[in-house]
From TrEMBL:
Organism this protein belongs to: Natronorubrum halalkaliphilum
UniProt-listed GO biological process terms: transmembrane transport
Domain ABC transmembrane type-1 residues, every copy: 87-282
InterPro entries given in the database record: BP-dep_ABC_trans_perm, MetI-like, MetI-like_sf
Transmembrane segments: 20-45, 91-112, 124-152, 158-177, 264-282
Keywords of the record: Cell membrane, Membrane, Sugar transport, Transmembrane, Transmembrane helix, Transport
Chief localization: membrane
Protein name (Swiss-Prot/TrEMBL): ABC transporter permease subunit
Subcellular compartments: Cell membrane
Highest taxon of source: Archaea
Length: 297
């Protein structure tokens, strides 16, 4: 272990005690921060396995481990149909969001990265503008969208909601993928063309394979845009078309006198699991894409 090696180095005089102390403090701080960040997840997991409807037992903030069971998950997945309906609605929204976004982002990023055409600079500035002013105009935009969708009878449409999410995700993610493609040497394309490859073959066999990390980042971000968003969905959708995020909020506020916290915790864990799995399996691509895309911390 590195700690044992450091102690031996201090004893042999190859390393100063101050350096060992700094390393121990940094490691301890990192572990403490990790514990703080993971504590809510651990608490929600234990709450979803607890008996009854409370988040805490009479002996402390944690439920009694001897009472752990899967009743809350059984209720959410089998007995109550709202989760399955909301899951289907969320999948529809996510499919529309991701498919429409990628169909615009990938060719748009390639064109902005590799082509020089009239108005290119203005388009780039426009993309930057749309990525920066969205938060400041969120309330006004929400009101305008609600009025517009209601007037056209589109206020309860999963398809329209997915298209809206795609529209909000395209500017930032196009800029991000364009920045990633800028790091791919043009010489790769030139070499492929010298070998007789067509422009489409260059894109398919050179640009897209080398852009996998950037595309993975865009895929995760657009998925999150359709999966996690709550305010727009809660405003525009009616109960039969609720997505998982809105249904989760509805579950927390549905009780007249109390909230079924164990079911809520199980619902929240199931809601967060796909995001965790996607990031886990795409972690290497995401880290590489963010690094080459200029977004590393």
């Amino acid at each position: 272990m590195k700690l044992i090696d450091d102690i031996r180095a201090v004893r042999s005089g190859h390393k100063r005690p101050q350096e060992l102390a700094k390393s121990l403090i940094a490691t301890g701080s990192a572990v403490g921060l990790l514990v703080v960040l993971l504590f809510p997840v651990y608490w929600m997991l234990t709450a979803s396995l607890s008996q009854g409807v409370g988040l805490m037992s009479s002996d402390g903030i944690f439920a009694d481990p001897s009472t752990y069971n899967l009743d809350a998950y059984r209720y959410v997945l089998i007995e109550d149909s709202t989760f399955r309906e909301a899951l289907l609605n969320s999948l529809v929204v996510v499919f529309v969001t991701v498919s429409v976004s990628l169909s615009v982002i990938i060719p748009g990023a390639y064109a902005l990265s590799r082509r020089r055409f009239a108005g290119r600079t203005k388009i780039l500035y426009g993309y930057v503008l749309f990525t920066q002013v969205g938060a400041g105009l969120s309330i006004a935009t929400l009101i305008a969208l609600y009025a517009l969708f209601v007037n056209f009878g589109l206020d309860n449409s999963l398809l329209v909601l997915g298209l809206f999410y795609a529209g909000t995700a395209i500017p930032f993610n196009t800029w991000l993928l364009k920045t990633f493609m800028d790091n791919i040497p043009v010489s790769y394309e030139e070499a492929a063309m010298v070998d007789g490859a067509s422009q489409w073959q260059v894109i398919r066999e050179v640009i897209l394979p080398l852009s996998k990390p950037g595309i993975a980042v865009v895929l995760v971000f657009t998925f999150l845009a359709g999966w996690n968003e709550f305010i727009i969905a809660q405003t525009l959708l009616q109960s039969e078309n609720y997505t998982l995020s809105v249904e989760l909020y509805s579950l927390a506020t549905s009780g007249r006198y109390s909230t079924p916290w164990t079911e809520f915790a199980a619902f929240a864990i199931l809601f967060a699991t796909p995001v965790a799995l996607i990031y886990f399996f795409a972690q290497s691509y995401v880290e590489s894409g963010l690094s080459f895309g200029g977004m590393e911390g």
